[in-house]
Amino acid sequence: MSAHQYDHGHTAAGWVGFGIATVGAGVAGLGVCTVSGVLIAGGVAIGAVALLVTWALHLAGWGKGPGVRPRAEWGWRVRDSAAPGGHAECLGCRLAGRGRRSGAGVGVGAGAGAGAGELSMPVQRAAEPETVTAGGDSVR
Predict the structure, then answer these.
(1) How many Å apart are CA 86 and CA 77, to the nearest integer?
(2) What does the pLDDT look like over 27-78, one tens digit per residue?
(3) Which residues lie across from 106 on neighbouring strands?
């Protein structure tokens, strides 16, 4: 029987990212205590490295996407079988060009020209202002 009854999301990507981010937070905290901008910047840079390492491990299959994994993949030493195709609701997978894409809203061009890879957002127009006359009638 497993040590836990729920999929808590313990993964190699999560633990490695947490470890690196903890070091970065410690370095930034030391920078705050010693009033050192260099240490604060170094801690923030280590935090950015933690983010990138975690993302790379997630894409390599050592993380998990949103939702519950199959019970056979609950162990943190088990690679995610869905990682190569991308996870449907995962921002990290979408940023890497994996996962489900909706047909509307995402435009990816073939080249590096204008508009390649840009997200298109629907335009919402503001309502026209109403003018209220002295008699209480509204006029547009």
Answers:
(1) 19
(2) 999 999 999 999 999 999 999 999 999 999 998 988 887 777 777 777 777 8
(3) 119
From the list 42, 75, 28, 77, the residue with the least C-alpha distance to 57 is 77
List all residues 6 or more positions away from 50 whose beta carbon is below 8 Å from its beta carbon: 17, 18, 20, 21, 24
State the Cα–Cα distance between residues 12 and 18, nearest whole angstrom: 10
Q: Which residues pair with 138 in a beta bridge?
A: 132
Contact yes or no for 118/111 (Cβ under 8 A):
no
Which amino acid is present at 13? A
- What is the reported pTM? 0.62
Q: Which residues, listed in sequence order, are joined to residue 139 by a DSSP beta bridge?
A: 131
Rounded-to-integer distance, Cα 74 and Cα 7, Å? 6
